[in-house]
Amino acid sequence: xxxxxxxxxxxxxxxRGRSVTIKCPTEDQNMRKFWCxxxxxxxxxxxxxxxxxxxxxxxxRVSLTNLPKKGMFQIEMRSLEELDAGRYSCGIxxxxxxxxxxxxxxxxxxxxxxVLFWVLQCVQDVCLQxxxxxxxxxx
Length: 139
Hints:
Blueprint: E1 8-15, E2 20-25, E3 33-38, E4 44-49, E5 53-54, E6 62-67, E7 72-77, E8 86-92, E9 102-111, E10 114-123, E11 126-135
Parallel strand pairs: 1-9
Antiparallel strand pairs: 2-7, 3-4, 3-8, 4-5, 6-7, 8-9, 10-11
Subcellular location: Membrane
Protein name: Ig-like domain-containing protein
Pfam family, one: V-set
């Protein structure tokens, strides 16, 4: 079985204080598995891996569970903070910084309970943009 050259891309939306679970596909259960966060410089900083390693900032907030019969491993991030938002990758291999080792790329969005959006209000061909705040109560 050969894997696609490009990883799957997914967007995950959650709220501050909540948890997310990410299911990462893998074909080789014996290889090192990792979850990393992409930096502005392009590096992918390890958050957790089966090396074993867990980044200090995520201690007690992240776990990696092998699910070999399902051909995947699972990442759970708990007590989310707005700083956790960003682009992550999970994959298998010795290095995090090669797209060829990624099996999934995740854009994680973390909101604080409010969502800002623009409303276009038009009356007789005159349109005004208004900034609105929507308070969302996550369930």
